Model the fold of this input.
Amino acid sequence: MNHIGIDYGSKFSGTTAICYVEDKKLHFAQSVKGEDADAFVEKMIKELAPKAVYIDAPLSLPAAYFNKGDDFFFRKCDKELDTKSPMSIGRLTATAMQLQDKYDGKKMTFHETLPSALGTMLSEAAERVWNQKKKNLEPFCELLAEHLPLPFAEKVDNWHQVEAALAYLSGLRHIDGKAEVIGDVEEGVIVY
Done:
């Protein structure tokens, strides 16, 4: 299946990265600091026309907003994975949900991922440390490459690209029925 992985960052920070396949290799596209990352993501989605998008950004709100429960900060998946509340990263959550609303079901599906959870799982299985410090970038990329079916077309430059590749790998795992799916389908799930 044609899918992409997105590490969604702040709008003008230059930290949004996308991992996709072209010519049987994994490529990266990254937003430019000072330019609109939301416009960049939309342009890339139109260009790449994936059937599925695996994105590191919340795609739903806590069920309390729909009169189902009393926790207005965390969803079940957030609690289970001990991750940020969708409310603490409001603009990112709203932007991702808006993007999903625009494309989901129109020959494309959206899935929320948590690259750090997959990174931790891969590192623990290999008895290595998952640590996003510059000195550990290359060793982690070597570990990540062992789990990807295709080689990287270019050197991975930063952790945003790593997280986009992890989102892409979450998609592969999900498509193959091997992904962890955490949360409540009615409220929102994270796949990794």
The chain has one domain: 3-191. Strands lie at 3-7, 17-22, 25-30, 52-56, 109-112, 181-184, 188-191. The chain has a mean pLDDT of 95.
